[in-house]
Design goal:
Number of helices: 17
Largest sheet: none
Structural class: mainly alpha
Distance between the termini: 85 Å
Number of strands: 0
Length: about 450
């Protein structure tokens, strides 16, 4: 009996550990083909959703490791801005849905030439290779086609390089990436595509870091932090290099590989830095630029070239522009920053986490809510996230927006959150929400009173 109790105790301990390892395994593309092969798309787990809680843990752990390595701790404004971009992408998904899988499944159903067996290990391995190859060509075109770059540039707008940077995603990119994978629908089952599309995305999380050095022989085959640091650099030698998702072999095969140079510090970000913490502007600024340039350029052919050639192209230049036009960088360059008081940083972090939790609740309940309410909540979340960026910029308008936002929070509490049963939220969550909301109102009330007294003083 004692041995039985010990065995049960070990099982109770090991079960959560095994669960965690299975959840984070896809971050390193570690998964069993037999356990990750499915006949129907509906059976495929949401591996990305499973992994989201671990993202925050790893972001914090990376900060600790950077501190131990005497590297600067990740900046709060940049990290929040990166995670905000990822959240905006997910909010866009809530509105529009997953048309990529639907279109892939439609092509497979109506135009497939053959159907590979869904439960074959060979199909699993082939799917891994071909999805990664599809990603390489999408990623390369996202840099070499100006119209696609308008979406993808969001991911490159951070001047830091941390795990949070991996979460800096474009809300528009899904509209320019899905068709690169459609040729696979002629023979690869949709479920296999969906599994490896998620694995391919998750693998790329851990390579966005400076705390991992080169990895020896693995550098020849895999995309690694070292290779991807080059990809995110704006040093002239880094431009348009290392497009790989998982396997760096594609860059070696197609002539876009460049190793990291130890003697030259990589400077991250866009060639022309964004210099803004406004997350909405980060999403659309290149679209706005293209719109103005489209009407400035003379001639229909030049207008087409503006959209379909590289971001550095202009009339009379090569398709991808001239290397001489790329600004030189200095190892002493400082990233864009605006100093704000510590309390602003803490305030934004707390309210960002509130919006994050609320958006996850919305994603889980969207099918049971009126579409108009879902849309209004997404608009509110977008305004909130944008204002957090404006607060980091010390933009005066952010104070007024925050006043309106807090008033709306109080209204939400009064109208929707009075009954924990009807909302499905626990009383603990409700209590925390109310405490944070009331404390925030009191905090900003004190700020506004102080500002009013300051302005009312005689000269």
């Amino acid at each position: 009996r004692e041995h039985l109790h010990q065995a049960l105790a070990m099982e109770n301990i090991s079960a959560p550990v095994v669960r965690v390892l299975k959840d984070i395994g896809p971050l390193l593309y570690i998964a069993s083909p037999s356990e990750s092969s499915f006949e129907r798309v509906e059976e495929v787990p949401n591996y990305v959703k499973r992994t989201v809680p671990y993202f925050m843990v790893f972001v914090i752990l990376e900060g600790v490791v950077r501190w131990l390595q005497s590297k600067p701790f990740p900046r709060t404004n940049d990290s929040i801005n990166s995670m905000t971009a990822g959240l905006l992408m997910n909010l866009c998904k809530i509105i529009i849905g997953t048309f990529e899988i639907a279109s892939y499944s439609w092509v497979f159903t109506h135009f497939r030439l053959l159907a590979l067996p869904w439960d074959s290990t060979w199909t699993w391995l082939l799917a891994m290779l071909l999805v990664d190859l599809g990603y390489y060509w999408f990623h390369r075109m996202a840099h070499e086609v100006n119209l696609f770059w308008a979406a993808h540039q969001v991911h490159h707008s951070s001047e830091d390089y941390t795990l949070a940077t991996a979460l800096r995603q474009s809300a528009l990119q899904r509209f320019t990436s899905w068709f690169f994978y459609l040729p696979l629908a002629l023979f690869l089952p949709p479920a296999a595509y969906f599994v490896h599309k998620q694995f391919n995305l998750l693998y790329q999380f851990w390579i966005h870091t400076e705390v991992v050095d080169q990895l020896g022989p693995l550098e020849w085959v895999l995309n690694t932090p070292s290779h991807h640091r080059v990809h995110h650099g704006r040093n002239p030698y880094c431009i348009d290099k290392n497009y790989a998702g998982v396997l760096i072999i594609w860059d070696r095969m197609f002539g876009t590989f460049e190793p990291e140079r130890r003697e030259e510090k990589v400077i991250y970000g866009l060639v022309h830095p964004l210099a803004s913490w406004n997350p909405f502007w980060a999403q659309v600024h290149h679209v706005v630029y293209l719109w103005h340039r489209f009407w400035e350029v003379k001639g229909a052919w030049h207008k087409v070239c503006l959209l379909l050639k590289g971001p550095g192209w202009s009339p009379g230049k090569p398709r991808l522009g001239c290397n001489a036009d790329i600004p030189q960088v200095s190892p002493d360059e400082k990233p864009y920053d605006r100093h704000v008081p510590l309390w602003i940083n803490l305030y934004v972090v707390v309210h960002f986490l509130l919006v994050l939790h609320a958006s996850m609740e919305l994603a889980a309940r969207k099918n049971s809510l009126p579409y108009l309410l879902v849309l209004l909540l997404i608009i509110y979340f977008t305004i909130s996230l944008t204002n957090f960026g404006l607060m980091f910029e010390r933009n005066p308008i952010s104070v007024k927006i925050e006043a309106v936002r807090l008033a709306m929070l109080l209204l939400v509490d009064f109208l929707l959150l009075q009954n924990a049963v009807s909302t499905g939220l626990s009383s603990v969550v409700l209590a925390m929400f109310r405490v944070i909301t009331l404390f925030s109102v009191a905090l900003w009330g004190a700020v506004w009173v102080r500002q009013a007294m300051h302005h009312s003083k005689p000269e």
